[in-house]
């Protein structure tokens, strides 16, 4: 009597494996819970990519609207964070151009249209009397 073995002999402690022609198909947990089909998933991913591209274009436009000397101040952040940063910086007045300091206001009590009187030809008594007017 001869026993034919088709494969290697199983080692001790290892159960013998059966070669089933068709394994049983089981329903996974995702299918039981009603997972999203791949087509819907791909559609949502494409919509998200389109929204991110639009947001990037909006951020680029906001940066281009800033004065050129301030563009280097904008940090390299995610587009949504960059929009929030630019908005906060505008509200704080960071991008407002500061003009030259304004001339001090004129004293409204002094007449501005009159030419100053020539006091060089007056004597001491006339100078004193002109100072008390």
Low-confidence stretches: none
Radius of gyration over C-alpha positions, nearest whole angstrom: 44 Å
Shape: rod-shaped
**Average pLDDT score:** 77
Range of helix content: 40-55%
| Fraction of residues in β-strands | under 5%
Find the count of extended strands (DSSP E, 2+ residues).
0
Kindly, what is the distance between the CA atoms of the first and last residues, rounded to a whole number of angstroms? 147 Å
Specify the structural class.
mainly alpha
Number of helices: 4
Topology as a string of helices (H) and strands (E): HHHH
Biggest β-sheet strands, sense, barrel: none
Explain this structure to me?
By secondary structure, the chain is mainly alpha-helical. The protein has a domain at 35-96. Helix content is 41%, strand content 0%. It has helices spanning 29-33, 38-65, 79-92, 124-131. α2 (38-65) runs parallel beside α3. The N and C termini lie far apart (147 Å). The mean pLDDT is 77.
Summarize the structure.
This protein has 133 residues and is mostly helical. It has 4 helices and no strands.
Blueprint of the fold:
Elements: H1 29-33, H2 38-65, H3 79-92, H4 124-131
């Amino acid at each position: 009597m001869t026993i034919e073995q088709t494969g290697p002999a199983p080692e001790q402690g290892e159960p013998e494996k059966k070669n089933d022609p068709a394994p049983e198909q089981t329903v996974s947990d995702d299918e039981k819970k009603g997972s999203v089909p791949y087509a819907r998933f791909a559609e949502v991913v494409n919509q998200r990519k389109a929204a991110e591209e639009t947001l990037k274009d909006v951020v680029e436009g906001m940066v281009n609207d800033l004065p050129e000397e301030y563009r280097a101040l904008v940090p390299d952040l995610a587009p949504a964070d960059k929009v929030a940063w630019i908005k906060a910086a505008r509200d704080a007045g960071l991008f407002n151009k500061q003009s030259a300091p304004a001339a001090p206001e004129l004293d409204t009590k002094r007449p501005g249209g009159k030419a100053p009187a020539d006091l060089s030809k007056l004597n001491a008594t006339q100078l004193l009397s002109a100072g008390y007017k």
